[in-house]
Amino acid sequence: MNEFHSYVGPSQIHDGTILSLDTDFPVSVTVRIRGGDAREIVLVFDGVRAVRQRRAVGMVLSGLAELGPACSARRFAFVSRDDDDDATLEIDAERMCDETPTAAS
């Protein structure tokens, strides 16, 4: 059983929308999100063991939770803001990197 461990990732994920899901399984998965502040967020998951998704693109998010323990990988679950929506995205991976471009100073 995978129990809630913590919320992870940038806070702008809240009220964000998944724009795309690019998979290079089993190497990596890249998730692009339009954040609640309208900026693009880029999360890259490396060492991917499994991806479970249903209509993930377009899902409006409440957050990104880490569930655990999940064998030798960490389990990341994108949490839908709409409790009645059956859209899901879960990724089992060794690590997650925030590769969001930063604004030039």
Number of helices: 0
SSE topology string: EEEEEEEEE
Rg is 13 Å
Average pLDDT taken over every residue: 89
Return the structural class: mainly beta
Strand content range: over 45%
Number of DSSP strand runs: 9
List the helices and strands and how they pair.
Elements: E1 3-7, E2 17-24, E3 28-34, E4 40-46, E5 50-54, E6 61-70, E7 73-80, E8 88-93, E9 95-98
Antiparallel strand pairs: 1-6, 2-3, 3-4, 4-9, 5-8, 6-7, 7-8
Structural key phrases:
single chain; 4-stranded antiparallel sheet; 5-stranded antiparallel sheet; 105 residues
Descriptive account of the structure:
- Strands 1-6-7-8-5 form a 5-stranded antiparallel sheet, with no helix packed on it. A 4-stranded antiparallel sheet has the order 2-3-4-9, with no helix packed on it.
- The protein has one domain.
- The chain is built from no helices and 9 strands.
- With 105 residues, it is mainly β.
Could you write a compact summary of the structure shown?
0% of the residues lie in helices and 57% in strands. The chain has 105 residues and is mainly beta.
